[in-house]
Design a protein that fits this description.
globular; 12 helices; single chain; about 425 residues; alpha/beta; 5-stranded parallel beta sheet; 6-stranded antiparallel beta sheet
């Protein structure tokens, strides 16, 4: 990053000794940054302290590293006055190529990792439909195993050279090529992100999606109709370019509390944000990058699919369950293989009803968050199951649900 010997040596004049704090976003790994002995991460803001007589040089260096300065605030280095900077901000410093702290030369500092994400720093619409980012496909892998139903792909995109950053639980837009039936350019479709903020490769330069090819029968002609954008994505090849927008969404964000209880209710590709959650919570590489977030609570995933070969990310999920049995519960509802108590197909709402007492007890804790993602049709059945247990406890479910939503503990993204 920024070299202390070049930028941190203050001049012997009062003006040269004045310090300024730069808030920078978008720092990325590139040829210039490759000279450093550690990766540069682009998530969140980086705060860099720069002396007055080195400001131009610092700006040039930040530009070469792909960064964007979003604010500059003066710090009176002679008497310690700093009316605009909080205590936390004062203690923030850049990690230098020399391994020294910018605010304390000679003291060894750790390589820069992910800045702690404040809720006020939620990236939204960095790229818009009129100026999308052109991403390249790195890989496109099938998720449905042999004997399963339909086509569902895990697609990884390269974001190098751009400034698209995101958080777990957000979505990005994809604009398919071509025109619609009216001759107008195709509109974007939103897809939940299936990777953490660091990406599957843990280098902050990728984003991954879980996309099922939409397929249905035309109600009048009976012919098979395929979704325009989902078919486009499922057929992409490595090296193909894709127009990407976003990120969007604040509804499905993961709380910062490492002791929280997280209940996740998913059907089909609704697993996407929960894969990102679980990677952030449990994957070794992620945990090493997130020193300020070491999950110790309970995560419970109830996952509804049609057949066992349609359990997306099955190996990943079961590996996490085996490694963290006290912190991760995995419950399947496999509709075409399992029976509900009435002898019909086992859907996710039946699993929720089966465990409703336990879920209700968990929801009484103020740090329990419940998430629902997938087909909209599951909402009524889940509401019915939880309404029954709430009523047994003398509580109106709708009122309780509204209170949880107001407290930011009930999160729904269905389609």
């Amino acid at each position: 990053m920024l070299n202390q010997s070049a930028l941190g040596a203050a001049a012997n004049t009062e003006s040269g000794s004045r310090l300024f704090r730069y808030e920078v976003v978008g720092l990325r790994q590139n040829a210039e940054a490759d000279k450093a002995s550690y990766p540069i991460r682009r998530s969140g803001s980086t705060f860099i302290t720069v002396p007055y007589d080195r400001m131009n040089e610092a700006m040039q260096r930040i530009t070469r590293l792909g960064g964007k300065i979003v604010s500059i605030q003066p710090i009176d280095a002679l008497n310690g006055r700093n009316g605009n900077v909080s205590t936390e901000q004062k203690s923030s410093s850049a990690t230098l190529e020399t391994g020294q702290s910018a605010t304390n030369p000679g003291k060894e500092s750790k390589p820069m990792t992910q800045a702690k994400e404040a809720k006020a720093d939620i990236p939204v619409n960095i790229y818009r439909p009129n100026a999308p980012f052109i991403a390249k496909v790195i890989s496109n892998e099938p998720l449905v195993q042999e004997g399963g139903i339909g086509i569902c792909q895990h697609v990884k995109f390269d974001l190098a050279g751009g400034d698209l950053r995101y958080l777990e639980g957000q979505s990005i837009g994809v604009i398919p090529p071509g025109t619609d039936k009216n001759g107008k350019p195709e509109k974007l479709r939103l897809y939940s992100i299936a990777s953490t903020r660091h990406g599957d490769d843990l280098n902050d330069t990728t984003v991954s999606l879980c996309v099922r090819q939409l397929e249905y029968k035309h109600p009048e002609t009976g012919e098979t109709v395929y979704g325009v954008c989902s078919t486009h994505i499922c057929n992409l090849q490595p090296g193909d370019e894709v127009k990407v927008t976003g990120p969007t969404g604040k509804e499905m964000l993961l709380p910062d509390d490492p002791d929280a209880t997280i209940i996740m209710l998913a059907t089909g590709t609704g697993i996407a944000p929960f894969r990102a959650f679980l990677w952030r919570m449990f994957k070794d590489g992620e945990r090493s990058l997130n020193s300020d977030y070491q999950f110790k609570g309970l995560a419970w995933l109830v996952f509804g699919v049609a057949t066992t070969p349609n359990v997306l990310y099955k190996q990943e999920l079961e590996e996490i369950q085996e490694k963290y049995p006290d912190n991760f519960r995995l419950t399947y509802a496999i509709s075409r293989e399992q029976k509900n108590p009435e002898g019909g197909r086992m859907y996710i709402q039946h699993r929720v009803a089966e465990h409703a007492e336990e879920m209700w007890e968990m929801m009484q804790k103020p740090n329990t968050h419940t998430y629902m993602c997938g087909l909209k049709g599951m909402e009524d059945g889940i509401d019915e199951a939880l309404s029954a247990v709430a009523s047994k406890n003398g509580v109106d479910w709708k009122e309780f649900q509204r209170a949880m939503k107001k407290a930011g503990r009930w999160h729904v993204e269905t389609y």
